Each structure stands twice: as C-alpha cells, then as structure tokens.
Amino acid sequence: MKLKGKDLLGIEGLDREEIELLLSTAESFKEVSEREIKKVPTLRGKTIINLFYEPSTRTRTSFEIAAKRMSADAVNISVSTSSASKGETLRDTAMNLGAMRPDCIVVRHSSSGTPEMLSRYLSCPVVNAGDGAHEHPSQALLDMLTVRERKGAIEGLKVSIIGDIVHSRVARSNIYGFTKMGAEVTVAGPPTMLPVGIERLGCRATSSMEEAVRGADVIMMLRIQLERQSESFFPSAREYSRLYGLDETKLKNAKEGVIILHPGPINRGVEISPEVADGPYSVILDQVTNGVAVRMAIFYLLVGGAREEHHV
Amino acid sequence: MKRTALDDKAIERALARIAHEIIERNKGTEGLVILGIPTRGYHLALRLQKKIEEIEGVRLPAGAVDATLYRDDLGIKKDQPSLKRMEIPIPIDGKKVVMVDDVLFTGRTIRAAIDALMDFGRPLAIQLAVLVDRGHRELPIKADYVGKNLPTSQKEGVKVHLTETDGVNEVVIEAQQ
Amino acid sequence: MNRLIIKGGRLIDPAAGTDGLYNIYVMGGRIASIKKAESDDSEAGPGVEAVDATGLIVAPGFIDAHAHLREPGFEYKEDVRSGTQAASAGGYTAVMCMANTRPVNDNESVTRYILKRAEGAAAKVYPVGALSVGLKGERLTEMAELKAAGCVAVSDDGMPVVNSALMRRALEYSKISGMPVISHAEEPGLVNAGVMNEGPAATRLGLRGIPNAAEDVMVARDIHLAELTGGRLHVAHVSTRGAVEAIRAAKARGARVTAEATPHHLALTDEAVKGYDTSAKMNPPLRSSEDVEALREGLRDGTIDCIATDHAPHSTIEKDIEFDKASNGIIGLETAFSVVYGLVEEGALSFVQALAAMSANPAKAFGLEGGRLTVGSPADMAILDLNGKWKVEAARLKSRSKNTPWAGKELKGIVVKTVLAGNVVYSRE
C-alpha cells in the first residue's frame, strides 16, 4: 500500500485508489488526535522541512502539528523572497535543502509549479502545500474527508464550488478530487473569475449562483481576495456579495442536508453570511480537524516507508 | 505444502481453556480489559470476551490495539502497512489489560502494541494471550496464556484462519519457498 | 583570394528557381560559376579547396531577421562572437540583431561597436536600431544616423510601442530612412502579467494567460498606421490566427507589410509548457493548435514572409527559477533549420517555401544582399543533409546559453557545413 509517486504535487496526478488510500489512512489518524497523548513514534528520527515562501499560519501549523504528532522533527523555514530575487536558481535552492538531508519537504509558494520544479532536483518527497493558482492537494483531501464523513460517500454527490475560480488552487484540486471520486462538480463565479477551458478539468461552469446552489449536496465557498477589486475582477465587495455571497435565502434552493465548506479564512459578510458560516450546515471546523489527519496520512504514506533512492 | 495444526474444535478448546486460565489467574474478572491486535487478534479477543461472559456472566470491555504506528520495521518495508482499528473502550489506567494476538513469533508486534498501549495510560498490568506460540523470539517477551505451542522452523509460515475473516477456523503450517 | 568548389550537391535556390545537381565555383567571396555536375570540373585544381556535396543540399545561407546577440551588456548570456558561431552552426550566414542591449542600440556608437565586434565573425551581422530612445517609447531615435552607421531596420523589440502617435511617427519616418519598422505587437493592458497563452493549458497549470487579442489589436493598429502613413511595417514573431488574417487582408489591400514567424510558434503549442518548462516560456507565448495551423497556412500562402528565430539567450539564473518570474525567450539559431525541416516532413510547407522563408524573403524584406545563389552573388551557403539525425545536446551548442525546448530531442536535418563569403566557417564534427 503506497502512493505511486515520490511526491504529492497535486490531485491531478493521483488516481481514485490513491485518493481512497489517503482518505482511509487519514481516517485512522483522526483517532491519534483524540488521545490524551497525541503522539505516535512512527516518524521518529525523520526531518520534515516546511518551506513557506508565502505566509500561511493555518496550513503551516497544520503540517507542523501533523509532523510532530508523528514524532518527526519539523523545521519551519519562512522565506519572503523568491529564488529569482535572491539571485539563486531553483537548482541551487534545492541542492542546499537537499544537503541538509531532510526526509520530506513541504513547499508553499505563490508561483504555480515551483514545488514540481524543486522536486526534480530533490531525492526526498516533496509535498505541495499550495502553489500559486495551481493546486493545494492537502486541502482537497481534507475537504473530501470531511464530505465523506458527513455524507457517507462522495460518489454521486452534487458539489458546487463558488467564487474566484481563476485564482484558486483549492478549486482546481477539488475539481480533480471530487470528479475522480465520482461526484458531479459545478464551479460558479462571475465571468471575470471563470478561467478559459475550466470545463476541461471535468466540471460544469456557470455564472448563475442560483444554478450552482440548486440541488447541491455540498457547497464550497472560496475566499474572495478584496485586492482583486483593483484589477476589476469585481467592482466592489458589496456587488460581489449581492451576486455570489451565500446567505440563507440563496441557500434555500440547495438540497436538504446540504453542507457548507470554506477553506478559510472567511470574509464574513462578503462570500458567506455570518448565519451560514455559523449555521448547522457549516462544517468549517471539521475541515480544520481533518486537515491534521490528512497531513499525517500524507507523511505516513510518503515518508514512513523505506527510503528509496531517487536519482535526480 | 501445508498441514493443519489446529482445527475448528481444537481452536475452540484452546480458547475455552485460555478463558478459564484468565479468570483463574486474575481471581475473577475485576478490572480486566481485553484488547486484541487487529486483524485476527481482535476477533480472538471478542471470542474470549464471549467465553468469559458464558463462564462468569460478566461482559468485559473489549477493543483493539493497533500497533502499526509503533512498529520498528516501518523504515525498512517498502510498502506502508495499512492502519487498522484502534479502539480503547475504557480508560486503561489501573486496569489489567489482556492483550490478544493470533500468533506469537518474534515478539516485535507485542513490543509495539505495549508501547501503543502505554500512550493511552498506565495499566496495572499487561498480560498476553496468544492462540499459537511458534517460537523464534527476538525480544524478551513471553505469553501468559498459550493455546498451543507449535515448534516451527524459520522457513515455515503459520497462518491462523478465522470464520470472521477467512470463513474457516484453522491453524495451518505452510512451507515457504 | 580564396577559391572553392562545391561539387555534386543538389543546389536549391528558391530566388532563382534553381533545383538540380551543380558544381559551384567560388572566387573572391562570390559565386564565379555554376555548372551542371556531370560537366567537367576543370575549375578544380591546385589551390582550390574542394567540398564534396554529393548527396547533400546546397542552399543559400540563411538570414535571420530576428535575433538577440546580447552584446553589449549581457555578454554572460551571449555575445556577437558566440552568437554568430551559433548562427553558422545553424546554417545562418547573416543575422539581424535587436537593439535591447545595455546600452540600448539607439545611437551610432553602439551600432558601430556591434559591427566592430562582428568583424571576422562567423556570420554577417546587421544591427536593428532602437525605434525610441532607450526603448522607452517616448522619443524617436536618430534614424538617419543609425542607418548611416549600419542599421537595417528599427524596432523596440522586447517592448511594444504603446504610444500610437509615436508608432505613427516612426512609420512616417521610415519613408525617408528606408528602414522598415519592426513591430513587437502586444497590448500590455491585455498581457497584464500573463506568462503563457490564455487557454485550457494555462487554466490547468494555474498560470496567468495572455489572450490572442493582446497581439491581434496591436497588429491591427500597426497595419492601420502603416496604411495611414504609407510607411513600411514588418510584424515580428506573429503568433495568432487573428494577426495572420489581419496581415493577409492588409497585403491584399496593398499595404507595405511583411511578417515573420518563429520555428517554435510554427512547431509547438502551449501544451509544451506542461511541467512548467521555462524553455517553453516566451513572448509572444506558444499558442493553440488552431493558431499553429493558421501560421503554417500563412507561410504557405505568403502572408508570412520569413521564418525568424527570435534567438533569445538566457542563463540559468533567468530560466531555472519560478515559472512566472523566468525570462521570456529561447535560443533558436542552431535548431531552426531542423525544426523547420520537421515541418516540411510533416507536409506543413514545401522545402522550397521553407528555404525561401529563411533566405530570399528576409533578404528582400530588409533589402539585404544574399539570399540567392546565382553567379555574382555572395558565396554564402548552407550545406544540408536531409537524411541525417542529430540529438540536441546542451553541452555541444555553440550559443553561450542553453535555453531550448529541444534539448535532449532528436531532430532530422543536419547543417553539415556553412560557407560565408567563400570560406567554410562551420563544419559539423
């Protein structure tokens, strides 16, 4: 039982069996976090580097807790500049990290593709913790775990992802993940935020909020970055909220028992109204709990086994 | 090449004897918890729970202790063993835990299971019940209750099959290539 | 006075319509005679260097209307010497080099410096002067001075001329300078930090896209300005079907417009970016298969005159970095012929069309000598083996930079020898 690749760079590269393996392993790990002694010796002596080129307290903390609960030594490196501005090539960066002999490197970067580019120079597993607008595989896995727990299965569900699709790595990873698991995925947002050819990823796309919500079993609201106003992706938070903000009125069209996910942090009153965010259908805190379990599962499957020699 | 070491009847008898021994040695059932090591140790634990209930009229708490995350061979095996059930039914502090496994071999799984158990609390005592002890210990570990001692060679494999998982009750010895 | 005979090769000269087995006799850097191969080779003899071209093609030396030789200022990427060596290894005997050096080639001293560096080089160098001072898009350069110093065209290549009035003035001025204005056509507002073609591939990779419209609107503007002014426009590195259509229509109306496309835009689509290969990052970006097909059609029907490399050397510090931070462009001089020959093999265009687009057409578009093989013309030749294959090995490339998407690939069609003014300046080992 293991993942086929050395790294976890995205959900696009996984098949359904691998996703199921990750989810079932994560389910087992949930129990560890419920114990009084939330620590198992599984990764004793392993070093995991969290290399964050983009500030993200939540994701970094979640990876760090996951590593520590498995007795790995987690080292956080926060870098505020790109390789480019340091006058260093990605090869230089990777070789320097590799020379510290880590057992895994978790990479978050604002430039799409950087974890993949680094992984080519590294013999240890690389985990993508979010790269640009490309992928955020651990987020999609925790979302799938949350939905599976609440709904029993993912197959056949209607999942709608609403918001700034064009800039969202969470959307891309979830489109791949949920479609591979047999759900029917719809993405929705203003036409300015629906990227060209998104349907080719296996989903439907619409700019109608009503259409996206109608009959949905799962609604995933994406965070809207207010800075996007300056580029006219939307005219104002008020206008955005009026059209695409999820409130109880719009939610009435959803299926009975709909659940609401949000990758956080929430802009209350913009993409999601406080009643909905705090309502009974919101599973946002489950997502956070599941995040640790999913990341433990990723480490277990990528780092726990015998070190294979990967030639680079 | 395989031969049956214990059949359905023999397994039943062995478990019945172990149930009696547990009660006798602990002078009753006070403070006992039965935890099986998945997969088959867990089913054996449930069977022992039932047998003790038949004898004493007391249903002991039973559960599972998965030793996978505590194994010492994780960094050696190429494939990751899948995680099993971890189910500690009541706090184990001050309890006498009877751990149950199907086959006692090197002792490494038991070591891992003891470590796992310690993360859940401080039991008064841990006892070990196994259906089969096939020898070849690599750690100083000894079972308190043994269904059957089966002297084997390292080259042989001992397989326990149970109706719950395999549709049949038997212990077989297979010659491995 | 050097004397050379090239014997037994198949001479193909699109300009003169020649195609047959000939012996070519060269004296004093020019072609002295061309005789049927079966005739006697009485011109051969002591003191005459002989090249046996049996089984090979003899074509006019290629002329690249678009290269970046990086000197002065960026010699760590390329210089005139290494760049012209790369050119001759690719069968090129002449290269037009763009003005985005440091300092910018916006005055005669820089032009003269480049030409000085090109003395004795493996290919002729024709500098392109800047259109605006410092490529800033504000004031016109002194174009008569640039021309007198040796420039053959003006361009702010690398940067679009955003100010339409400035473009208008440049085109008006081209009527007296006689130098075509080369347009790097992109509307920066639409490029908007895009790093690859806008489309499904960009969506998948999470990279910001550049729509075709960014090129289309600028090409349309420049054509309108050329027609308004009667100026001479050359559209660089056409990449979109919209631009091809606009140029085709403009030519039909009689506008003074020529255009070029690069081997990579003719051969690759935006799918090549997959895996975040910065060797597939350039500006304009690699486009869709529909665009590639339109470019090929444009070459076949003459809408696109030239195949130009847009040879853009970059070192690893510009390329082996985050995709969106990496510099645009790839080297092209050494692979151009083989890539174009691949298109010929695919049936995208005829071999004669390919040779014309790489020699006679750029010569004509920019009024350069060469590009033909007739008696009296410069003895600039590429000797080609169409059956041979070669593997592109970064270490063996003559260019100082190695940023090519064809690294490690096997290509068909080998440049065996390159002859410049009657001297063999390149022989493949």
Please tell me about this protein's structure.
The complex is a heterotrimer of chains A (312), B (177) and C (429). In chain A, 38% of the residues lie in helices and 14% in strands. With 312 residues, chain A is α/β, with parallel strands linked by helices. In chain A, α2 (57-69) packs across α12 (284-303), α6 packs across α7 (169-180) and α6 packs across α12. In chain B, 28% of the residues lie in helices and 27% in strands. In chain B, strands 3-2-4-5-6 form a five-stranded parallel beta sheet, with helices on both faces. Chain B has a three-stranded antiparallel beta sheet with strand order 1-8-7. The radius of gyration of chain B is 16 Å and the shape is globular. Chain B starts with a strand and ends with a strand. In chain B, 40% of the residues are buried. With 429 residues, chain C is α/β, with parallel strands linked by helices. Chain C folds into two domains: 3-58 and 377-427, Urease, subunit C, domain 1 (Roll), CATH 2.30.40; 62-366, Metal-dependent hydrolases (TIM Barrel, Alpha-Beta Barrel), CATH 3.20.20. Chain C is built from 14 helices and 18 strands. Chain C has helices at 80-89, 108-117, 143-149, 164-177, 188-191, 200-205, 213-229, 241-253, 263-267, 289-300, 316-319, 336-346, 351-358, 360-366; strands spanning 3-13, 18-27, 30-36, 49-52, 57-60, 62-67, 92-97, 124-129, 153-155, 181-183, 196-197, 209-210, 233-235, 257-261, 306-307, 381-391, 410-420, 423-427. In chain C, strands 1, 2, 3, 4, 5, 16, 17 and 18 form an eight-stranded mixed beta sheet that branches. An eight-stranded parallel beta sheet of chain C has the order 6-7-8-9-10-13-14-15. In chain C, strands 11-12 form a two-stranded parallel ribbon. In chain C, β2 and β3 form a beta hairpin. The model of chain C has no long low-confidence stretch (mean pLDDT 96). The chains are: A alpha/beta (312), B alpha/beta (177), C alpha/beta (429). Chains in contact: A-B, A-C. Chains A and B meet through α1 of A and loops of B.
